[in-house]
Design brief:
Strand order of the largest sheet of chain C: 6-7-8-3-9-10
CATH architecture of the largest domain in chain C: 3-Layer(aba) Sandwich
Number of helices of chain C: 10
Number of strands of chain C: 10
Order of helices and strands of chain C: EEEHEEHEHHHHEHEHEEHH
Structural class of chain C: alpha/beta
Number of strands of chain B: 10
Distance between the termini of chain C: 39 Å
Largest sheet of chain B: 6 strands, mixed
CATH topology of the largest domain in chain C: Rossmann fold
Oligomer: heterotrimer
CATH topology of the domain at 5-90 and 160-235 in chain B: Rossmann fold
Shape of chain C: globular
Chains: A mainly alpha (about 325), B alpha/beta (about 240), C alpha/beta (about 260)
CATH superfamily of the domain at 5-90 and 160-235 in chain B: P-loop containing nucleotide triphosphate hydrolases
Structural class of chain B: alpha/beta
CATH class of the largest domain in chain C: Alpha Beta
Strand content of chain B: 25-35%
Radius of gyration of chain C: 20 Å
Number of domains of chain C: 2
Largest sheet of chain C: 6 strands, mixed
CATH superfamily of the largest domain in chain C: P-loop containing nucleotide triphosphate hydrolases
CATH class of the domain at 5-90 and 160-235 in chain B: Alpha Beta
Helix content of chain B: 25-40%
Shape of chain B: globular
Strand order of the largest sheet of chain B: 6-7-8-3-9-10
């Protein structure tokens, strides 16, 4: 029984980490990034090809590298690679694209990435993906399987806590405030000397690094990763977590992740399966999550733990400042 | 002062939620005359016209049209009663043809639409060859003419025009005034808010000068033009 | 008003040109703004005042022309670069950052001075903390002067229109500019607030900032400005005091328009 909670807990910690990464782009940066999960997947793949032995040791399996390096290298390497890729993609996508147009480009990028990874087998073994990932620090600790799972759970929680603290420090810093000012009104931010492009790019890269780290932890949690483990639509579930938990708020991100992506699916599994349709279970889960999001947005539009409250305790959403209309109105009248 | 005012505003106060822009303006327009509202920027001319048209609601005062209190009526109901309105922006549908634009103007009418189109084309002969063209391909002056014609399709007794020459070259300005005079010659009353004061007062049978949200002077256009204080109303002092 | 000999004008605009798709919005616009003054930039609708401000502040790039800030050429650069050189501008519509508090709005307008990086956020926390406290004090002082202290911790988006305009002045003062361009600061403002804004503007000038105001309210311009520049049809058509300008035929014609051409 305990193992069940340890397993769920590990999943919760990793998912919370991913949600924090998305929060850096959406909550802090105000960028509607619909392709976030590509970076998560790449984190998992990069970690895999760094920590797995060379592909030639297994017949019929193809992937690049295969350097058999320890977990720490895989973990950090995943973050570095996804960070660099975020820099490359972001420097182009964030230059001139805003709002919906930027979102479309991120979707396109992710679909391209997904297709290339699935079809170009020499890269990450195509549809079969990578498997057999090592258990971090196993050689040092020599724990039994159940004890190891608990250790890994602890490891993920520690990493989550560290990332949480770092992101919160960043969010509350002058840098974080500058990024928020760009999010709220980039022309006004520029009018007061801030470079909107640079600040947006930094928030984007930050999110990418966290995504990569999360992907790496995912890889060693499941010990395998292939196109069936992810789809471009996974990003929307993370958004569900942010919307429910409260955007821009790190506590909200974690709470949202736990509720929407872990607790809720687990609870819906308790609903007795009906009919003979084996797909009913996941379908009910999806419906339930959708309904939860709708209910929360109806009664608590800013999420359960929003960024700001007025002194009168009124919760406000970004929509109510009419910021979108103001952006559309542009600047430099008559 | 017109004897039997067709349209009148009595002490109207209009704002956009903050401080009122029109702070107690009164004016009246007789049937069939050419009337103008002029004044410096920010005086509230366009705001007053929008209130007359029904685009904005009144904080105070009332608006009478043909003996009826129309203060609470929305624009389309005022149009139905014969009060036409040509706004300054977005007054033609660029992707529809000239003919389709005219048909939209006659939306409320059940019959006689074709006759109406003919009447408008007689008034503005340049429209006929352009009937099949998208309105977006017309020049500025032609589009102004189309906006005017579209409003005429509803057979108004009085037409409200919001800065019809705004953004047009001086030569085209002259053409627009010719159109306005042509409309006037058909017995349709006109109330024009204009930026080019001298030109407007030159044509106006009766004019109002608005400064800071109030009507500070009125009279026949040419007479106002001759008043020495006119410059002071615009440049302070 | 020609700048006193030996005193570099705070702002020099020389032969500025800008067209939008064939329409000449600004053509051969030339004027100088003396330092530590309040200069009004007036003219009828369509004269090109806002376009001139947009060109000077870097929001749009000129087709031709030179713009000098205290002798240094600044034309062709971006809005944020120009702001960092000490030229700050406001907009006709209040552009506060709605989800940040009023105090955060003011602090976020202070010059960044290379402190706003991720590295410093993680590794220079003590130094940043000291700087934050200084900024908070300055901000509190500015808000106090503008009577915004009661709403210091409210989200800026919940302020009334008038309060947002006052907040804009706090932000401008916080940015410690050399010169500030105010784009119609009194648009839609009631007389009482106009008085307060007038005091804030003179306060800016007294603290050493050169002020340029684009305004339609000529009574206010006359009361507040040291000299006035009139634009018409994209160029400067007059300069001086309001009394002088009222006698300037070109200026009168620009405001009252041209009558119908004589047959």
């Amino acid at each position: 029984m305990l193992q069940y909670f340890v397993s769920i807990g590990t999943l919760a910690a990793i998912t919370a980490l991913l949600t924090l990464g998305l929060n850096s782009r959406w909550g802090l940066g105000g960028q509607l990034d619909l392709g976030f999960y590509l970076f998560v997947a790449l984190g998992a793949y990069v970690d895999g090809v760094l920590t797995l032995p060379a592909a030639s040791t297994q017949p019929g399996v193809h992937y690049i590298l295969g350097l058999n390096l320890p977990f720490v290298v895989g973990f950090l390497g995943a973050g570095i690679v996804t960070g660099l890729l975020s820099l490359a993609i972001g420097s182009v996508a964030l230059r001139n694209l805003r709002g919906d147009y930027f979102a479309i480009v991120t979707v396109a990028t992710t679909i391209i990435g997904y297709t290339v990874i699935s079809q170009y087998t020499p890269l990450f073994n195509g549809y079969n993906g990578l498997y057999g990932a090592s258990q971090p620090l196993e050689g040092v600790l020599h724990l039994g399987p159940q004890a190891y799972q608990t250790f890994y759970f602890g490891l993920c929680v520690v990493i989550l806590a560290a990332v949480f603290v770092i992101l919160e420090l960043i969010r509350r810093s002058p840098f974080g405030r500058a990024v928020k000012s760009v999010r709220e009104d980039e022309v006004a931010a520029a009018a007061f000397g801030r470079n909107p492009y640079r600040l947006r790019l930094k928030a984007y890269v930050l999110g990418g690094v966290v995504a990569g780290l999360g992907g790496s932890l995912f890889m060693h949690y499941i010990s395998a990763f292939n196109p069936a483990s992810w789809s471009p639509l996974e990003t929307f579930l993370l958004y569900g977590a942010l919307l429910v938990g409260g955007t821009a708020n790190s506590f909200g991100a974690v709470a949202g992740a736990v509720i929407v992506l872990v607790a809720f699916p687990q609870l819906t599994q308790l609903i007795p399966a009906f009919g003979s349709n084996s797909n009913a279970g996941p379908a009910v889960q999806a419906i339930a999550i959708g309904l939860l999001i709708i209910v929360v947005l109806r009664f608590r539009p800013a999420g359960l733990l929003p960024e700001l409250k007025t002194m009168s305790g009124q919760l406000r959403t970004r929509g109510s400042w009419n910021w979108r209309a103001r952006r559309a109105a542009g600047s430099g009248e008559s | 002062m017109p004897e039997s005012p067709q349209l009148s505003a009595e002490g109207i106060v209009v704002g956009y939620g903050g401080a009122p822009v029109v702070r107690g303006a009164s004016l009246s327009v007789g049937a069939g005359g050419l009337n103008c509202i002029v004044g410096p920027n920010g005086a509230g001319k366009s705001t007053a016209l929008k209130a007359l048209a029904g685009e904005l609601s009144l904080d105070q005062g009332r608006i009478m049209f043909a003996g009826e209190d129309v203060s609470r009526l929305p624009t389309d109901q005022r149009v139905a009663r014969g009060l036409g309105y040509v706004p300054q922006v977005a007054n033609t549908f660029a992707t529809l043809t000239v003919h389709e634009n005219l048909l939209v103007g006659a939306y409320r009418r059940r019959s006689g639409v074709k006759a109406r189109v003919d009447m408008v084309c007689d008034l503005f002969p340049d429209l006929r060859p352009a009937l099949g063209r998208p309105a977006g391909t017309l020049s500025g002056g032609q589009r102004s003419m189309l906006a005017l014609s579209r409003a005429l399709m509803a057979e108004p007794a009085l037409l409200l025009l919001d800065e019809p020459t705004a953004g047009l070259a001086p030569l085209v300005e002259g053409q627009v005034w010719e159109h306005i005079l042509a409309v006037r010659s058909r017995g349709i009353g006109v109330l024009v808010v204009e930026q080019n004061t001298r030109r407007a007062l030159g044509h106006a049978e009766w004019a109002y000068v608005m400064v800071n949200g109030e009507t500070v002077a009125e009279g026949p256009g040419p007479e106002l033009l001759g008043r020495r204080e006119l410059v002071d109303m615009y440049l302070g002092g | 008003m020609v700048a006193k000999p030996g005193l570099t004008p705070a702002l020099d605009v020389i032969d500025l040109w800008k067209s939008f798709g064939g329409v000449r919005a600004v053509q051969g616009c030339t004027f100088s703004v003396p330092p530590h003054s309040i200069t009004g930039l007036v003219g009828p609708n369509g004269a090109g005042k806002s376009t001139a401000i947009n060109l000077i502040s870097g929001l749009i790039k000129p087709d031709k022309g030179i713009i000098r800030l205290n002798g240094q050429e600044i034309q062709g650069h971006s809005l944020d670069w120009t702001s960092r050189q000490g030229l700050v501008r406001t907009f006709q519509v209040a552009r506060e950052w709605p989800a940040l508090t009023v105090t955060e709005n003011v602090i976020a307008a202070a010059p960044a001075e290379r402190q706003e990086t991720i590295w410093r956020a993680l590794f220079a926390r003590r130094a940043l903390g000291r700087r934050e406290r200084l900024l908070e004090e300055r901000a509190a002082g500015l808000l106090e002067r503008l009577k915004l202290t009661p709403v210091a911790h409210e989200p800026a988006g919940s302020l009334s229109g008038g309060q947002k305009r006052l907040l804009e002045f706090a932000r401008v003062a916080m940015a410690a500019p050399k010169i500030v361009l105010l784009d119609e600061p009194l648009a839609g403002v009631n007389p009482v607030l106009a008085e307060e804004l007038g005091r804030a503007i003179t306060g800016l000038r007294d603290s050493g900032v050169t002020v340029v105001i684009v305004e339609h309210n000529l009574r206010f311009v006359e009361r507040t400005c040291d000299n006035v520049i009139v634009m018409g049809a994209g160029a400067v058509i007059g300069e001086g005091t309001m009394t002088e300008l009222r006698k300037n035929q070109q200026v009168v014609e620009a405001y009252l328009g041209q009558g119908a051409p004589h047959a």
